[in-house]
Amino acid sequence: MNDIDKQKAIEVLNKILELELAGVVRYTHYSLMVYGYNRIPIVSWLKGNATESLAHADKAGEFVTMLGGHPSLKIGPLLETEQHDIGDILRESLEHESTTLAAYYELLDVTEGKSVPLEEYAREMILMEEAHLDEVNKMLRKPGDMEPFSE
């Protein structure tokens, strides 16, 4: 781990920490704003995402302290569109998850070949975020649509 740019890694990890904490706030808020016949499974899914985001934030913070850094107390951007249709919530989620995924790719770029623990962490999180994006994308498709959702 001697070859790693620790300051850059800490900077990216803190960005990830902030984005994941924003995910906690977003998904908790979204879970409170769901109404209608399918409320129970959607609220459960959103609360699960909030819990997962908190675990991801915690892990990023642990890596910050492992590198000798100070975990950020900031929270990433929170967009309130006042649109609470399930489709709107999923599109906002897709945007947020894409931003978070980009941060994990940035971490991979900083750590690849320089730190096995951080590189493996980045790869694991990229896999999870890609799977989550795919799940949200499929939720945004109309039944029978095989092509990925795009605006």
Question: Would you write up a description of this structure?
Answer:
The longest helix has 28 residues. It contains 4 helices and no strands. Helix 1 runs antiparallel to helix 2, helix 1 packs antiparallel against helix 3 and helix 3 packs antiparallel against helix 4. The protein has a single domain, classed as Up-down Bundle (Ferritin), CATH 1.20.1260.10. The mean pLDDT is 92. It is elongated, with a radius of gyration of 16 Å. It is mostly helical and 151 residues long.
Question: Which geometry do the CA atoms define?
Answer: elongated
CATH-level-2 architecture: Up-down Bundle
Structural class, from helix and strand content?
A: mainly alpha
Which class in CATH terms? Mainly Alpha
Mean pLDDT: 92
What is this structure's SSE topology?
Elements (H helix, E strand, L loop, with lengths): L5 H27 L6 H28 L19 H26 L4 H25 L11
Helix pairs in contact: 1-2, 1-3, 3-4
Short description:
By secondary structure, the chain is mainly alpha-helical. It is built from four helices and no strands. It has a single domain, classed as Ferritin, CATH 1.20.1260.
Question: What key attributes describe this structure?
Answer:
151 residues; mainly alpha; Ferritin; 0% strand
